[in-house]
Specification:
single chain, 289 residues, mainly alpha, 3 domains, two-stranded antiparallel sheet, 12 helices, 58% helix, transmembrane, membrane
């Protein structure tokens, strides 16, 4: 009778103990979920106009009552939880690599790379949310001509209009030629009619005015700018009299009227120049009459 061969049982692989989050991580996660809970309350507060507020020891803090704040708060909560989980995972992997210096270095380097990539992604999302596009962001005081040129490919008319508006806000005369050359127009056509405005209406420099005029800015294509000269002379601009005179001369040459007044101010530009003791500006205005 043949003896049955003994079957050696195959040992089951030992399962690694489940990595548990430490006390600090748990507290951080609770903070993140608390932020999300406040976000839910804020959403209800905004949707139903409840005027809710958080109170503690007699002090109260109103909950957000607009959707931008609610979305921002929710994003902060999600980000907090994600970073907490990420940090806990990295710490656990670092501990598991005890005795293996190379692996520990790899864990740290990998974590840093992921943080940099994720941080840049979040930055782009935040800036796009705030400015409408990266193009508009670079048309503020932070961008160079090269930055703007890099963003122009495929730029929508809305992005171009937003960019042009930012150049006015930050007096970026150096960007005008690039932006107008890419297709931006002074009409601000992509904005709702009631919100359109002329980029020259801002407190821009003589260089900005002259360059915009050279690129085709006129009373006909610059919205709501009929009384632009009056607004410039009567405004609170820091321009000295000689500079203001040159600005007025440039606007007159482009077709703006020295006599036009706004519905809120019936006083003509020439009278404002007299009141503000601006002899050079006054001479230019009187010469146009």
């Amino acid at each position: 009778m043949l003896a049955m061969s003994e079957v050696t049982p195959v040992p089951k692989p030992e399962s690694k103990p489940k990595r548990e989050m430490g006390a600090v991580g748990m507290i951080s996660m609770l903070i993140g979920f608390a932020i999300l809970a406040v976000t839910v309350l804020s959403a209800a507060n905004t949707a139903f106009d409840l005027n809710l507020a958080l109170g503690s020891h007699g002090a109260t803090s109103p909950l957000p009552n607009n959707w931008e704040a609610v979305i921002g708060l929710g994003a902060a909560g999600v980000l907090w939880i994600a970073l907490t989980y990420f940090g806990s995972t990295v710490v656990g992997m670092f501990k598991d690599a005890k005795g293996n210096t190379g692996k520990r270095v790899g864990v740290i380097v990998g974590a840093l790379v992921l943080l940099v990539v994720a941080g840049r992604g979040l930055q782009v999302v935040a800036l796009t949310w705030s400015y409408g596009s990266m193009l508009a962001y670079y048309c503020t005081d932070v961008g160079t001509i090269e930055d703007v040129q890099d963003e122009l490919e495929g730029a929508t008319p809305e992005a171009l209009d937003a960019c042009l508006g930012r150049t006015s806000q930050w007096d970026r005369a150096d960007l005008l030629e690039v932006v107008i050359g890419a297709g931006a127009t002074f009409e601000d056509a992509t904005t709702e009619p009631e919100f359109r405005y002329c980029v020259l209406s801002g407190d821009v420099s003589l260089e900005y005015v002259e360059k915009a005029v050279a690129l085709g800015a006129t009373p006909q294509n610059c919205p709501k700018s009929e009384s632009l000269i009056q607004a410039k002379v009567s405004g609170t601009s820091d321009q000295d009299d000689e500079t203001m005179a040159k600005i007025v001369a440039a606007l007159l040459a482009a077709g703006w009227s020295a006599d036009a007044v706004s519905e809120f101010d019936p006083v003509k530009a020439v009278e404002h120049a007299k009141q503000r003791n601006q002899p050079a500006t006054l001479a230019v205005l009187e010469g146009a009459q």
